[in-house]
Amino acid sequence: MSIPVTDLTLRPPRSVRARLGGYALLPRMLDKCRAELAGTAGSFHYACPNDQRILTFLGIDADALRTEVANGKGDGELLTWIKLNQRNRHTPEEIEAWSDAMDKRTPTPEDREKFEQYLGECGPNRKDITRWPDLLDLDDFVSYGGKA
Fold first, then answer.
1. pLDDT tens-digit readout, 73-96
2. Tell me, what DSSP letter sits at residue 14?
3. Is the domain of 1 the same as that of 52?
4. In this structure, how many other beta carbons lie within 10 angstroms of the beta carbon of residue 27?
5. Cα separation, 12 vs 7, whole angstroms
6. How far apart are CA 139 and CA 4, in angstroms?
7. What is the per-residue pLDDT across 42-63, written as a single tens digit (0 to 9) for each?
C-alpha cells in the first residue's frame, strides 16, 4: 500500500536535513505545503518559524510559493521556479554553509525552554539530543510510533 506523500497524518514530512538544490529545510517545507493544501497536514504547519528561515534566506514569499505548489509542480519544477524568483541569490558555497548551519542549529537562550519542553515530551531520557534537527527528527519518529 502506498501512502500519499501529502498525508502527514500517516507519515512525517521529510527530515529538516533533506536537501533540494542544496537547501536544507526546503523539502520538508514543500511536504507541509502540499499537505496543507490537501487538508492532511495534521499537526504540521506551512510557513512556520522554521520555514521562515528558508523563505528568508531565499527571499521567497510564502504565499507565492504556495500558489506554485497548488499548481501541482514537483520538487524539480519548484526549485526552478525558486531560482527564477528568489530575491536573495547565493553561491553554491553560501548555500552549503547555510544548510550546514541549519543542520547544526542549537537552541538559543531565547528558545532553550521551548527546546527542553519538546525534548521532555518526546524523549526525556535522550541526553544526546542537543540540536534542533535532532529534536525534530526524534519528534517525527516518536509521533509516528517509534520509541525514543
1. 999 999 999 999 999 999 999 999
2. P
3. yes
4. 22
5. 8
6. 21
7. 999 999 999 999 999 999 999 9
